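Field log, afternoon session.

UNIT: design team B
ACTIVITY: writing a sequence onto a fixed backbone
BACKBONE:
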């Protein structure tokens, strides 16, 4: 027994147990998905990733899960984050074209999928297992992974079959946007019944309007889906966002004192809370990632993503 009354062997065992837990659950995966185009998906994703990178020392990855998306605005995302296609590492061992790109931030990278990437057939079991191992190897050193699913578009891009338990989605105050948000939440819960879906209200004219919008969507989701929708934050209409977009920079970098930046900073801070409790195992991460790169027989000939 040491002078402090603490057994050194107990301390060692506690440290080992903590290390084993960290090894078993090395990272956190959060999906980012929209129910329609024009909700600020890309600008919020870029600013949120930037803010997470600056608030923490975590190694962060934006992992593109978009499959042949007709509204591919990843080039805008690259521009905002300072990533360049010719500066990345080509992931030659994958069955499709992809790159790992650095951003202007030391602890933030992007997994960039080729627009013409071919996907695996569900019968290709050996290839699927190999891809799962490869994706786990690529992502194993990251502590926070933002899975960018892009926008669901009716009759064109389907709701992803494989989803993480944490999801961020958006709405604006318009009636159409709220309706599409509800429809998306319903579809998300069909594929991941235990999902914690976090709502960001964007482009609201005031804080009161944003709160009312969030409450209306929450009440409908609770009434018809019996699910508790979480409000992650609200972002008011701000001309500073337009200015930052023109300069190709995250608004939190260009105008850190602006109200919109403060809103995004609060959202990032809230995401950081209870971080370790939200981590998943590397096995679960690999299964999640690979499923969205396999084409099922029922939609192989359709236009669905």
């Amino acid at each position: 027994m040491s002078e402090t009354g603490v057994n050194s062997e107990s301390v060692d065992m506690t440290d080992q147990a903590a290390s084993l837990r960290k090894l078993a659950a090395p990272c956190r995966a959060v999906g980012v998905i929209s129910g329609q185009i024009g909700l600020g998906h890309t600008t919020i994703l870029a600013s949120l990733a930037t803010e997470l990178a600056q608030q923490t020392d975590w190694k962060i990855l934006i992992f593109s899960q978009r499959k042949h998306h007709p509204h591919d605005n990843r080039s805008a995302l690259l521009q905002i984050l300072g990533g360049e296609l010719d500066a990345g590492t080509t992931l030659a061992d994958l069955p499709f074209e992809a790159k790992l790109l650095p951003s202007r931030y030391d602890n933030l990278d992007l997994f960039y999928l080729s627009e013409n990437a071919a996907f695996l057939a569900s019968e290709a079991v050996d290839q699927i297992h190999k891809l799962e191992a490869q994706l786990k190897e690529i992502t194993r050193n990251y502590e926070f992974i933002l899975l960018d699913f892009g926008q669901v578009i009716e009759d064109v891009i389907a709701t992803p079959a494989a989803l993480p338990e944490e999801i961020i989605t958006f709405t604006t105050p318009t009636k159409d946007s709220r309706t599409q948000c509800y429809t998306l939440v319903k579809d998300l819960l069909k594929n991941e019944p235990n999902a914690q879906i976090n709502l960001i209200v964007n482009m609201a004219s005031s804080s009161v309007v944003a709160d009312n919008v969030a409450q209306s969507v929450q009440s409908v989701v609770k009434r018809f889906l019996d699910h508790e929708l979480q409000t992650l934050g609200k972002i008011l209409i701000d001309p500073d966002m337009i200015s930052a977009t023109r300069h190709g920079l995250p608004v939190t970098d260009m105008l850190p004192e602006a109200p919109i930046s403060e809103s995004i900073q609060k959202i990032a801070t809230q995401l950081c809370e209870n971080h370790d409790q939200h981590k998943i195992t590397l096995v679960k991460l690999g299964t999640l990632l690979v499923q969205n790169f396999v084409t099922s027989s029922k939609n192989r000939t359709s236009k669905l993503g």
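LOG NOTE: The first strand starts at residue 28 and ends at 34.
NEXT ACTIVITY: expression trials, pending approval
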